[in-house]
# Entry
Amino acid sequence: MNDLNKQIRQYIDAAADPVSIGEVELRSQRSRNSVSNGRTRQLRLGPAIVWAAVVLLLVAVLGLKLATTNTPRDLGPLGHTPKSHVLIPPALSEPRLTDAELHQQQTSLDLVRGSQGYVFALDTGGAYSSTNFRIGALHSVTDADGYLVAELATTDNSSDSYSTQTQYQAIGGFGVSNFSKQTAFYGQSAVPGTASASVSFPVANQGSLVVLVAIGGDAQCETTSGISGLTTDTTWSRGVGYSVLIQHRYVEPGRYTVTENTQQCAPGQDPNHAGDLIGAFVYSPR
Amino acid sequence: VATITIEGNRLAVSFEVFFREVEPKLRRALVAKHGAIRGREATAEALSWAWEHQDQLSAIRNPIGYLYRVGSTRTRPKPRLIPFLREREESLAYEPQLGLLLLGLPQQQRVATVLIHGYGYTLIETASLMGIKPTTVQNHASRGLEKLRRGLGVSIDE
# Structure
């Protein structure tokens, strides 16, 4: 690829963030709600039709006003007429997932640039030493032998890395944009042979996005329970490799408890190297 | 996760897999066609349509070409916005006038040039996305690249 071709690609890639599957779901939900409320898609109508509708509405309002000029108006108990119904749906303001990736046998990850915040996750075999993530606010789990086996790093940098002497390792992460506040909650377990960890967290605002990152340190089989209808963004079920489960959903305000269940599926694994870590990241809308 | 079937190779894939494959191509093509803001909006609209009409999508022979047209028809131009205005200012190594030169290309030349030369898509792939003949794509792409080279003063590929 020559230099000009590369520049064209970089220019277009930098022009617009990727569209996430969560954003598409949200738009579809909005569209369905709009139709079910009996509202038509005013913004999809051609400009001519919109103008015609506005003119007709003005004529109707003027006609109604002339017809009722001499009639006392019923102002209601508070002395004012009710506000007109707002027809235009609100702008897309919810937080959105911009990227989610999981890579086996890698120790560095570059997520799509331009997001507001990032979370990185590492998962190691736990038999040998590993360093912490290079950047970010860290939350770590060490196994019964004292080795780093799972870690989460929260940062505004789109790249992060660590190093390890373990034979097997994985790195994952996600990016989020369009949020006003990020709150992180963690649950962990590092007893030998651990098979679960739970996290409990409140969601205060309507339209909040919850992203779960479940790491089964030195474990390949993994599920979560506690919130139904989660969209799975990354998991691993193909051959040798660790599952770092990243899932998300827009949730109603309330209190939630999520549990990750893990299992060392490969034969002969050392239970002393197991360690579970689950992070729940709540993103409030702007 | 819903399941759809892509006609042609009759491969049943989940919507998520379909989404991951189609989103980058669609976004690049629509951003090249309409610019950053409307291009991204068109991509999101087209994929929302796909999400809502998975049953119909399975009967469409060329889903990505269809979604390319859906994205364009479901969004409207915003007259006061410059089509190639970038929302993010990053210190990437572009030629400063590349955006203006891309903007100066006719729409089909721009899309063909970006997809063929920027991303290395094949002529058939690009033609099926744009709904035109591969030979026409080739003409658009080579004319577009030639204009960019002239504009940037580049004569030889490096």
